Amino acid sequence: xxxxxxxxxxxxxxxxxxxxxxxxxxxxxxxxxxxxxxxxxxxxxxxxxxxxxxxxxxxxxxxx
Length: 64
Description:
0% strand
């Protein structure tokens, strides 16, 4: 856990960058997944929409 207390006018990105660097790639994926789960809890019916989007297209070359 990391925390700091500064006036809003003095807030800089360096703390955020240090935090995300410290938790690493696995921590970033876990944080993202937690946000997905939180959204599913806040929006009823959202859990059924959690799937990959797929787009299908068919291209045909015209002879002419």
